[in-house]
Design brief:
Oligomer: single chain
CATH architecture of the largest domain: Orthogonal Bundle
Radius of gyration: 21 Å
Distance between the termini: 22 Å
Number of strands: 0
Mean pLDDT: 91
Length: 464
């Protein structure tokens, strides 16, 4: 990508978004131009996000068909699956290392770093690496989410839209943030959550211009994505009854579990990344290949346990799962998700952590129902609340979490319990001094950049 003349002075010429907004003129013509470009960027983000989802669906079907066929081939079939998954993960890691290191991981820390002025926007060719690398990695069974690539690709498309129309940095950054939200909206068929995510997580403050752009981009993204994907919510949830007054303490306990679970998740993920960092002398492709091979072996025995995990979440929301088995599933998916993220391939965290939240809520709901048979407890309702509670415990974006789960399940019955549980899930890790996961990942990104800039550095260039 050719150097942007506005970057010729270095990153000091790329001030934080909040500063740009404070200095930006409030002219009606500029606002109208922004209002016109945001839906256009949203259309691009929605189109590529929906196509990405379709590609992942096809990759999942292909993997399942191969595993089904391989079971008839005994040991050679097992070896084929392990090798294929290892090769897919290794190829994804090679694409990232060779062509676009910023495509590693979810991309959300990178988007936040661009908005804060720490790094320049990603080049357009990242779209190819993120798209193909994400399909290879997640299609190989790595426990990663579709939303990270969708968010980063949406941000790149929106920034390029502003550049094509000759907008200044203020408008381009607003569009970049809005495009990221449109990517999230497309990933989960959740337009309101996409807009809220921009304000609560990416910007961390309310700005009128950003709100206008985020709403326009998310609306346009959903309009085009639903044309390709349909209108149904991501997950079907059965009829749930409203929680009674006396169930309040149970949702407080679920919130505590979500907050503590968030701390465990964050520390496990960061610890795994640290361990991977100590293996920097090993080629990135080799590390990813080993992780892919292990995931492939797991997938051969239990195909539904690998990949993004939507099948597991759907099962939890239907109340499916044995009390004795769920804890083992949670631990397995936690370790698999952390290792998958450390592979350095494209892929997000949201979908895998929603799996953990649904299973955590289902497990506690089943325990509560067993201990309190007269309360009429529906464990699947606790699974819905658990998704939001663990999300908040990890990300610390409560409004985004509540709205996201509500839109994904098309269920408002559990809205009040979600608010109660998310309040506690936000409080517990904050009091205990645990940082939100994307703050920690962004700090790692900054440290990585500093080390890479040191003379004689051997840092491999990947970032998460």
């Amino acid at each position: 990508m050719a150097a942007d003349p506005e970057h010729t002075a270095g990153l000091d010429a790329n001030p934080p978004l909040a500063a740009e907004l404070a200095e930006a003129p409030a002219g009606r013509l500029d606002l109208l131009m922004l209002g016109a470009l945001a839906p256009l960027a949203g259309l691009g983000a929605g189109l590529i996000g929906a196509t990405f989802r379709l590609g992942l669906d096809e990759a999942d079907r292909l993997r399942d068909r191969l595993i089904g066929w391989s079971h008839g081939e005994s040991l050679p079939g097992f070896a084929l699956i392990v090798i294929a998954c290892a090769a897919g993960a290794a190829l994804a890691a090679w694409m990232v290392r060779r062509f676009a290191p910023p495509a590693s991981g979810s991309g959300i820390p990178q988007v936040e770093a661009v908005l804060s002025g720490d790094i320049p926007p990603a080049p357009p060719h990242l779209l190819v690496v993120k798209f193909l690398g994400g399909i290879l990695a997640i299609g190989s069974g790595l426990a990663l989410g579709r939303e990270g690539p969708s968010i980063q690709m949406g941000a790149v498309i929106a920034h390029q839209t502003g550049q094509w129309f000759g907008r200044g940095w203020g408008d381009r950054r607003v569009l970049l943030a809005a495009g990221a939200g449109a990517g999230l909206a497309t990933a989960f068929n959740a337009p309101i959550a996409g807009a809220v995510f921009v304000l609560e997580e990416l910007l961390k403050r309310f700005e009128t211009r950003v709100a206008i752009a985020a709403l326009g981009a998310s609306a346009a993204a959903i309009w085009i994505s639903r044309k390709l994907l349909g209108n149904a919510p991501d997950f079907a949830v059965g009829q749930l009854t409203h929680a009674t007054f006396w169930m309040g303490p149970l949702f407080i306990l679920l919130g505590i579990a979500g907050g503590l679970g968030g701390i465990v998740y964050n520390r496990t993920l960061l610890g795994t990344l640290d361990a991977a960092g100590r293996l920097a002398h090993v080629p990135a492709e080799a590390r990813a290949g080993v992780i892919g091979a292990v995931v492939g072996a797991i997938g051969w025995f239990a195909p539904t346990l690998v990949g993004g995990g939507d099948q597991i979440t759907a099962g939890a929301l239907a109340g499916i799962g044995a009390i004795a088995v769920i804890p083992f599933l949670i631990v397995l998916r936690l370790l698999m998700g952390s290792a998958s993220y450390a592979a350095g391939t494209p892929g997000g965290l949201f979908a895998p952590l929603l799996v953990l939240g649904a299973e955590l809520g289902l497990w506690l709901g089943k325990l509560f129902a067993l201990a309190l048979p007269g309360f009429g407890i529906q464990p699947e309702g606790f699974a819905v609340v658990g998704m939001a509670a663990l999300f908040v415990g990890i990300v610390r974006a409560p409004v985004t979490g509540i709205v996201l789960v509500t839109e994904m399940t098309a269920n408002v019955t559990m809205l009040l319990p979600m608010i109660v549980a998310c309040f506690v899930a936000m409080l517990v890790p904050t009091v205990l001094g645990d940082s939100p996961i994307y703050d920690s990942l962004r700090a790692r990104l900054s440290l990585h950049r500093e080390r890479a800039a040191m003379p004689g550095s051997q840092v491999d260039g990947s970032s998460r």
